[in-house]
Amino acid sequence: MTTSARTIAQAFREVAARFPHKTALVFLGERYEYGQIDAWSDALAGSLARSGVAPGDRAMIYAPHSPQWIIAWISLQKLGAISVPVTHVYGPEDLRFIANDSGAETVFCADTNFGHLDRIRARTPLRRVIVTGVADLLPRWKRIAGHLLDRIPTGKVRTGEDVLSFRDLLAQRGAPLRQGSASGGVAEMLYTGGTTGFPKGVPYSHELFLECCAEHRKPALAVVPAGENVILQGAPLYHILGQVFGLGALLGGETVVLLPNSNLDALLE
Description:
269 residues, globular, 5-stranded parallel sheet
């Protein structure tokens, strides 16, 4: 990955402007182009700003792999907010600790995880929940077929002014937000596993993240030229290893194949 960008948002916009019709993501048989991801993340960033999310705010991403995960992460970078990705297998008390420790007021949540989150929200700073289903951005016929065949997991989600729909936020019309955080600012906070105590939040600046991705890609450039790689995303996106593989590939104009869950048999097939 070679870029003169000093923020993640700038890096992604450069790639999307150069390759608007190139496949960025492949998910459950569907292909999503760079221009489409750029437009969706712009729209979501604008909707988040209108909902009260400001630059520097923390926002958790608590969902399995999906295009929505990627769009949420990029939109937070465009807004200048700080993403806090966490594993979707965490239970209520893990969520409560990280929400309080990070000071997050916003969380992107899978519908299947909403119950865990709702149990502890009153004891956290969380003010708004943005809910998505794993199939939200699939074609309508696939969503219907998936539900009829009981192949799409769903969860119960209560209604309320503090519970927002990911799809509704994408559909809102209005001027998209076109700003990114200042150079040197914190892009995200990743939490350690907590094997030697409570999890600890590790901040990553934009420059550090972009440098990590560039250094990770550099050894393979002689074999697979820049922009030509296809990444089968096995490592989780809430972990720095998975991020430099997958998110780094997207910042370099390459293609990422996402699976909802890391399953060894599915990966090998």
